[in-house]
Amino acid sequence: MRHVLHYCLMLATAVAAVTVFAEEPHISREAIEWCNIWIPDANGTKLPRVLDQCRFDVVHFNNGLHGWGYSEAEYRKHFPQLVATIREHAPKAKLIWAATTPMRKAGDLTVVAEGTNRVKARNQIAEEFVAREGIAVDDLYGLVQDHLEYWSADGVHFNGKGIDVQAEQVSRRIAENLK
Predict the structure, then answer these.
(1) pTM higher than 0.85 for the full model?
(2) Total Cβ atoms within 10 A of residue 47
(3) How do the domains of the chain map onto residue ranges?
(4) Running DSSP on this structure, what letter comes out for residue 51?
(5) Does domain 2-21+48-178 have CATH number 3.50.50.60?
(6) CA 70 to CA 68: how far, in whole Å?
(7) pLDDT for res 64
(8) Do residues 144 and 161 make contact, with C-beta atoms less than 8 angstroms apart?
(9) How many whole angstroms separate alpha carbon 79 and alpha carbon 128?
């Protein structure tokens, strides 16, 4: 379940980011396509729908590390459009913005990677906007920042333990917003 949630969140973020930025003349493409997704038991009705093609109850989203080719000024300009796009397609959904996680130096996880300064800047931009809009926050940055044991050796991605702790928190935040 956590892997499905993880892939769904990545796909939703990628789709939303492409939707927002596609109208601008400056396109910064990534070398990754996020299309590897499957949903087992898609017709199941035991649990409420969180990510589907119909009605959204909750949208837990993030737009941070991907889209690195865009400046912070572009991020500030387009983040409100990302939220507007989500609201347009999920008008009754409760929104939860997830803070982007910091980065560690590949090969030496004791060192915070230089890119974390950009993460902090983007988180601040997003935090200011979501606070004004009354959007809930899931502080994944704070959750992982002091836990070197959560990272994979590349300093960007997380190992099983890191994925588990984030999935637990994301699940809890979504469940709180389904009540």
Answers:
(1) no
(2) 9
(3) 2-21+48-178
(4) S
(5) no
(6) 5
(7) 76
(8) no
(9) 11
Q: Which tens digit of pLDDT belongs to each residue from 96-149?
A: 999 999 999 999 999 999 999 999 999 999 999 999 999 999 999 999 999 999
Unique residue bearing structure tokens 């109850």: 57
Which of the residue ranges 66-75, 94-103, 112-121, 158-167 would you say has the lowest mean pLDDT?
Answer: 66-75
- Cβ-based burial of 106 (10 A; exposed 0-12, middle 13-18, buried ≥19): middle
**Residue 25 and residue 9: Cα distance in Å, rounded?**
26
Contact between 153 and 103 (Cβ < 8 Å): no
Neighbours of 32 (CB within 10 A): 9
Residue pointed to by tokens 């836990």:
147
Residues 6+ apart with CB under 8 A from 95: 58, 59, 61, 83, 86, 87, 130, 135, 136
**44-57 mean pLDDT:** 73
Class of residue 136 by CB neighbours under 10 A (exposed 0-12, middle 13-18, buried 19+): middle
Question: CA quadruple 93, 135, 21, 31: dihedral positive or negative?
Answer: negative
